[in-house]
């Protein structure tokens, strides 16, 4: 068979063709069966049909007894024909679990601690209700705008308020605690109005890793957007009385009773939103006035927040009962000149799906009575679709064209009409939702008022069973399990194929090929060598405006909202990015979310060859209260890091492994490798080592941190520096020496401890690969102000010490930093740490980390040690997390949960650098030395493969490569799909 001509969207009629194979002819993907069994199947279920039968039977329980068998068969047929209930329904319906079948809720939050505030529960009452909701499997969204601003007066206690962001941290920790009791991570959305006095703190709350269990969005008003256009000021207001300092600074009370805390330029605040979104992918934006004006229930509710995925604006205690129809099922003659969409069949499935979702509201367990009552009063459901991107490809339509948007409009229109017709018919059979009022519902410029006249007449005559019916949600893992990895929701495909590396119970990894449905169908029909048609376009090949245009095309046919992540590449210009949300507001959208990959992993050494510096003379100092001092710095000879983090590896990479056998158990050591290219080939041989990691339950605590920091050293393009690091680890002694076989022949060697043994194995592999050979550039080594640890005279020197207490592990020890004075650019001196050590009860593997970081401290540019320390802040240990004070320059007293002793130690060292005016509290240099510069990514991907991108740490593979894709967490290194929302 001849594939469609790649240069055109339609195949010429003269092209030779035979009957095309249907999608059902495709063999199942192994990953689909794996995800089905892992996340959704229950008991002895092994197949899709067995699971679908359970769901159909469970939802048919809401029917009259004599009709249950009929509807069970209809519900099973609808699932076979493309309807995919949301993940909560598929995983819990028809089981003995008391988990909710509802994905997400909105929880009201008042301003008091425990009492009701204008119908809103107090903060800690809301926290308890949210915890119960998450315990049952539901995600929660909140509007925190009622909480009084930081510094506001609290009359009952004669004190100052701490502000909404401080309470968000309490909700954040609660979510993390509740999630640990179950297998599903809790999802949360935090919203704050644009006119809240703490809005700037809120915008930047996640800039440095805080609120990890939250998505955040700014609730924006039309008044604010108009002020941006007029370059006017906006008032930041609240009903709570300001504190004395705020009143002294100019806060005043308006005629309407609200207090104006301060004013600022709307454009200034908006630029903060856009800059933060560009750099950190948050906050998102909700257009509150548009949401409420379009709301079918504008006459009886006010909406201020959404569920975590943001496709469901909801009132207090509102819920989203979701399901999606796989559009690819309804494509006839895919890729052919007569490719078409079966509207009639699609409408039939949508009508049955509407009934199924209405039944969910009657059979689900409810976490809270208030949620059940809210659902009974309004009976919101959210029918959507998935696979739009693939469907357009199969219809020969390129996603970023007007023709494709026309197709999407028509599909959305068919879905809207079918859902509203089915709900009106259900109202005849079961009754309209209790708050239905035909005159109010069908008027006022809301969504329902714009329905076709025939539908409005039917609703007026028959009533309506459900106040809202449509929502396009992220489909995440259900697309993998139930739709052959069809493109997610409204999105285009993110990549055509990639390798999913899944961690197994024994710590090993199993690899699965994951292929996009439309792409594999095309290959199945035309062969692996057939050129792709022009319709094959991925998310990152599209402009941000093209993404937004598709939302604008579909939005008029969706009564709630659409989960759409505008993914743009890392090098997308800010000038093009900054107007996205303004354009979305002008287009009448209810909100927007964006994701631009951002490298949070530090900087790269620049290439500036100069003369080799003279060796430093021994450094000494004496006298009472003296510090070590270096009088003259060398001239750095710098070359670039090969990568700032793991390189982009769409096809995976080989890893050499070795079992470390030590007295307390065994664990696996891995050295990740890549084929060397270009000039590196001669220096490093066949393969290039670029990372090390350890795996196994019996690895010594703290050894993972040694591997993490050593991985960065492997990527420095400095063999001498790597030798120096391995030399430093070679003599790390622990409680007792032990013998261990060494590669490649298994000869036994005596080692003073497990750190030295691990370093010896790494050295052995690096030597095999030629990565330690003499010669070549020495950029990092030459950037040190002292290769040896500066030594004192018998008079000694000052040092900084701090105590660490981890009750979770029983560790109590002291961290000590030796410090040295260096010449400063202004002619004076600046104090810098130059070595570190531990004393007391601590994991002995930390001695290895101390030796490595001590060398890093002596690199002239403090951005280097800052990068190393920031990498260690997210090191976690099973059962090793604990609560300890947050070190701050301001002296603020607050506690925080730390994921491990290592993370806390790294934070303390950063704090000391901040005390000395060298780094800020985030570990970034206060004064740029010019030796380090922004990293440049290296791509080795193809158009049909996944591009590895920097992002959050992945819980599956551990790489900092997890991004937000199509509304879900997605690891671009191993293919893990996590939380959606």
TrEMBL record:
CDD domains: RNR_II_dimer (cd02888). Its cofactor is adenosylcob(III)alamin. SUPFAM superfamilies: PFL-like glycyl radical enzymes. Keywords: Cobalamin, Cobalt, Coiled coil, Deoxyribonucleotide synthesis, Disulfide bond, DNA synthesis, Nucleotide-binding, Oxidoreductase. InterPro entries: RdRp_reductase_class-2, RNR_lg_C, RNR_lsu_N, RNR_NrdJ/NrdZ. Its EC number is 1.17.4.1. Residues 30-97 form the Ribonucleotide reductase large subunit N-terminal domain. Residues 7-16 have a biased composition (Low complexity). Residues 1-24 are annotated as: Disordered. Residues 104-595 form the Ribonucleotide reductase large subunit C-terminal domain. One of its GO terms (molecular function) is ribonucleoside-diphosphate reductase activity, thioredoxin disulfide as acceptor. GO terms for biological process: deoxyribonucleotide biosynthetic process; DNA biosynthetic process. Residues 41-68 form a coiled coil. PANTHER family: RIBONUCLEOSIDE-DIPHOSPHATE REDUCTASE (PTHR43371:SF1), VITAMIN B12-DEPENDENT RIBONUCLEOTIDE REDUCTASE (PTHR43371). NCBIfam families: NrdJ_Z (TIGR02504). Belongs to the ribonucleoside diphosphate reductase class-2 family. Catalyzes the reduction of ribonucleotides to deoxyribonucleotides. May function to provide a pool of deoxyribonucleotide precursors for DNA repair during oxygen limitation and/or for immediate growth after restoration of oxygen. This is Vitamin B12-dependent ribonucleotide reductase.
């Amino acid at each position: 068979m001849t594939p469609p001509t790649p240069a055109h969207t339609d195949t010429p009629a003269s092209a030779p063709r035979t009957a095309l194979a249907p999608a059902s002819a495709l063999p199942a993907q192994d990953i689909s069966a794996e995800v089905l069994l892992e996340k959704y199947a229950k008991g002895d279920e092994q197949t899709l049909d067995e699971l679908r039968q359970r769901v159909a039977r469970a939802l048919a329980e809401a029917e009259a007894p004599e009709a249950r068998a009929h509807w069970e068969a209809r519900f099973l047929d609808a699932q076979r024909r493309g309807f995919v209930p949301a993940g909560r329904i598929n995983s819990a319906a028809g089981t003995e679990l008391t988990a909710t079948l509802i994905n997400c809720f909105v929880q009201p939050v008042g301003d008091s601690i425990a009492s009701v505030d204008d119908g809103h529960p107090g903060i800690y009452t809301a926290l308890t209700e949210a915890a119960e909701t998450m315990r049952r499997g539901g995600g929660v969204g909140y509007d925190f705008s009622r909480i009084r601003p930081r510094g506001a007066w609290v009359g009952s206690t004669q004190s100052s308020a701490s502000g909404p962001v401080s309470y968000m941290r309490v909700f954040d920790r609660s979510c993390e605690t509740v999630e640990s009791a179950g297998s599903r991570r809790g999802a949360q959305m935090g919203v704050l109005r644009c006119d809240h006095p703490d809005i700037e703190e809120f915008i930047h709350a996640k800039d440095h890793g805080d609120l990890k269990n939250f998505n955040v969005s700014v609730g924006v008003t039309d008044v604010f957007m108009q002020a941006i256009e007029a370059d006017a000021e906006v008032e930041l207001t609240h009903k709570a009385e300001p504190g004395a300092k705020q009143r002294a600074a100019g806060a005043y009370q308006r005629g309407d009773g609200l207090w104006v805390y301060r004013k600022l330029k709307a454009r200034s605040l908006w630029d903060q939103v856009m800059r933060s979104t560009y750099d950190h992918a948050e906050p998102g934006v909700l257009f509150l006035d548009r949401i409420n004006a379009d709301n079918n229930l504008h006459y009886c509710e006010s909406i201020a927040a959404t569920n975590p995925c943001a496709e469901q604006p909801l009132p207090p205690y509102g819920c989203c009962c979701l399901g999606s129809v796989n559009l690819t099922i309804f494509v006839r003659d895919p890729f052919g000149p007569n490719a078409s969409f079966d509207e009639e069949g699609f409408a039939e499935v949508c009508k049955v799906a509407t009934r199924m979702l209405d039944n969910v509201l009657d059979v689900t367990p409810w976490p809270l009575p208030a949620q059940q009552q809210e659902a009974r009063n309004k009976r919101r459901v959210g029918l959507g679709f998935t696979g739009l991107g693939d469907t357009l490809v199969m219809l020969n339509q390129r996603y970023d064209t007007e023709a494709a948007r026309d197709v999407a409009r028509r599909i959305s229109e068919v879905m809207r009409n079918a859902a509203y017709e089915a709900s009106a018919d259900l109202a005849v059979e079961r009754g309209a939702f209790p708050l239905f009022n035909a005159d109010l519902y069908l008027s006022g410029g809301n969504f329902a008022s714009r329905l076709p006249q025939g539908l409005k007449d039917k609703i007026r005559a028959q009533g309506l069973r459900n106040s809202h019916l449509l929502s396009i949600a992220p489909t995440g893992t259900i697309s993998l399990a139930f739709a052959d990895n069809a493109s997610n929701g409204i999105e285009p495909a993110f990549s055509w194929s990639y390798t999913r590396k899944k961690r197994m119970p024994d710590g090993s990894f199993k690899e699965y090929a994951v292929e996009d449905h439309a792409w594999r169908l095309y290959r199945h029909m035309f062969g692996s060598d057939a050129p792709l048609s022009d319709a094959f376009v991925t998310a990152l090949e599209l402009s941000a405006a093209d993404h937004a245009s598709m939302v604008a095309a579909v939005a008029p046919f969706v009564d709630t909202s659409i989960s759409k992540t505008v993914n743009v590449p890392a090098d997308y210009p800010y000038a093009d990015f900054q107007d996205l949300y303004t354009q979305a507001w002008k287009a009448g959208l209810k909100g927007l979310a964006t994701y631009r990959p951002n490298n949070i992993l530090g900087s790269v050494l620049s290439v500036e060859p100069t003369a080799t510096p003279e060796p430093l003379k021994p450094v000494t100092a004496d006298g009472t209260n003296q510090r070590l001092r270096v009088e003259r710095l060398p001239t750095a000879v710098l070359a670039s890091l090969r990568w700032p983090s793991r390189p982009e590896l769409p096809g995976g990479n080989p890893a050499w492994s070795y079992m470390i056998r030590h007295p307390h158990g065994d664990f696996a050591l891995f050295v990740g490798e890549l084929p060397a290219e270009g000039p590196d080939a001669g220096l490093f041989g066949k393969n290039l080592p670029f990372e090390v990691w350890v795996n196994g339950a019996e690895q010594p605590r703290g050894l993972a941190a040694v591997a993490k920091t050593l991985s960065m050293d492997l990527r420095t393009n400095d063999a001498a520096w790597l030798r120096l690091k391995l030399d430093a680890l070679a003599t790390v002694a622990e409680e007792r020496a032990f013998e261990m076989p060494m590669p490649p022949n298994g000869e036994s060697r005596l080692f003073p401890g497990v750190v030295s043994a691990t370093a010896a194995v790494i050295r052995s592999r690096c030597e095999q690969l030629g990565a330690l050979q003499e010669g070549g550039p020495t950029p990092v080594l030459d950037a040190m102000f002292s290769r040896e640890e500066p030594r004192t005279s018998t008079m000694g020197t000052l040092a900084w010490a701090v105590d660490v207490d981890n009750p979770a592990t029983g560790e109590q020890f002291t961290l000590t930093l030796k410090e040295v004075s260096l010449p400063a650019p202004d002619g004076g001196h600046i104090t810098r740490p130059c070595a570190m050590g531990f004393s007391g009860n601590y994991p002995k593997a930390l001695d290895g980390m101390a030796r490595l970081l001590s060398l890093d401290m002596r690199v002239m540019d403090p951005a280097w040690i800052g990068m190393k320390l920031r990498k260690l802040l997210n090191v976690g240990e099973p059962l090793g997390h604990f609560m300890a004070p947050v070190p701050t320059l301001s002296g603020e007293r607050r506690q925080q949960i730390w994921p491990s002793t290592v993370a806390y130690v790294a934070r303390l060292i950063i704090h000391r650098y901040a005390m000395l005016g060298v780094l800020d509290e985030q570990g970034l240099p206060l004064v740029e030395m010019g030796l380090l510069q922004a990293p440049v990514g290296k791509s080795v991907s193809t158009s049909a493969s996944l591009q590895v991108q920097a992002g959050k740490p992945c819980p599956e593979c551990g790489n900092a490569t997890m991004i937000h894709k199509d509304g879900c967490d997605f690891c671009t290194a191993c293919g893990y799909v996590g939380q959606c929302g």
